[in-house]
Amino acid sequence: MNAGTHAPRIVVLAGGVGGSKFVLGVREAARRRWPDADGGTRAEITVIANTGDDLWLSGLRLQPDVDSMIYALAGVNDAERGWGRAGESERVAAELHAWGSGWPWFTLGDLDLGAHVARTGWLHDGLSVTQVVARLASRWPLGIRLLPMTDAEVDTHVETEQGRMHFQEWWTRHRASLPARGFDSPGIAQAAPAPGVLESLAAADVIIFAPSNPVVSLGPILAVPGIDDAVRAAGGVVVGVSPIIAGAPVRGMADACLAAVGIEATAAAVGRHYGARDHGGLLDAWLIAEEDAALAPEIEAAGVRAEVRPLWMRDLETSAALADAALDAAS
Ligand code: FO1
């Protein structure tokens, strides 16, 4: 990436809350590096969002990761709770629960419900998922282009000792505490990347793997046939940010997901899981935390350039600094 001469095309692969925090940082870092006349950026930022978390509930289509991204970039998210809109009431959710509709452990806020009703209506009218996401994302000036990974419905399921369940049931009802034997997203092997996904990867100056869950956030994106090959073949630099710091996930319950698929919860093991592009893998560089500096030789031995940086995203400033470090690693 030649940062000096032209505003770059940046593509971020991202999942839920960690992904949206990181993308906020990318947008801010790009505004500072490549400002335009309107307080935005000349850089083109495309976010490819995980849709493996999606679900049907009470007859409505939910897309938690897409909505987290839109709400966070619009500044209307409930940052404390971690999902939904700030300041929303739950009157409709209480009615749904009273009717026995939906899941009692899964609460849909009233403002958030507006998005689900609108989305379901547009899908019913025959719009593709890509078109629906574009409509939802057009409500606020987000400063990025948001693409779903695929237009196909590929909800993730979990195999546990208590049977098979939707990922959201395992995650929110059981808080990932039921030992998982594995994850699968039926139909994903036949799914096609959404329009624009392969084109954006091919044209990117830099592709960044957000510090999102490697198994249930970035895993589904990379499992859509053609996406991993497009990353391998990309002319741009591929930089990943570790979602694991000192053996624990930055947020969420990624360690439970990693254990289920036999990957150790360390920054080195996740880096090796993605692998080096020089050896048929996906990464050129892997950002690890200062706490994990001792793992750098192990990562470099696998052929991936390890960069030690502060990874904690506490606020916009630290998210922007992390995004800046990822952009630097691509230079
Ligand atoms: N997470 C919860 O832990 N409890 C909930 O009741 C809940 C409701 C919810 C509603 C809409 C939505 O888009 C997301 C929601 N989430 C809730 C978050 C979500 O289950 C997960 O954290 C993500 O899918 C993981 O990335």
What would your notes on this structure say?
This protein is of the alpha/beta class. It has a domain of 203 residues: CofD-like domains (Rossmann fold, 3-Layer(aba) Sandwich). It is 37% helix and 18% strand. It contains 13 helices and 14 strands. Strands 5-2-1-9-10-13-14 form a 7-stranded parallel sheet, with helices on both faces. Strand 11 and strand 12 form a beta hairpin. Helix 1 runs parallel beside helix 2. The longest helix is centred in the N-terminal third of the chain and has 17 residues. It is globular, with a radius of gyration of 19 Å. The termini are close together. The relative contact order is 0.15. The model has no long low-confidence stretch (mean pLDDT 96). The site of ligand FO1 has 16 residues, from helix 2 and helix 6.
Judging from the principal axes of the Cα atoms, what is the shape?
globular
Bound molecules: ligand FO1
Relative helix content = 25-40%
Q: What topology, given as strand order, has the largest sheet?
A: 5-2-1-9-10-13-14
Per CATH, the superfamily of the domain at 9-55 and 142-154 and 187-329 is CofD-like domains
N- to C-terminal distance: 5 Å
State mean pLDDT (0 to 100 scale). 96
Number of helices: 13
Structure classification: alpha/beta
DSSP strand content? 15-25%
Radius of gyration over all CA atoms, rounded: 19 Å
The helix-strand sequence is: EHEEEHHHHEEEHEHEHHEEEHHEHEH
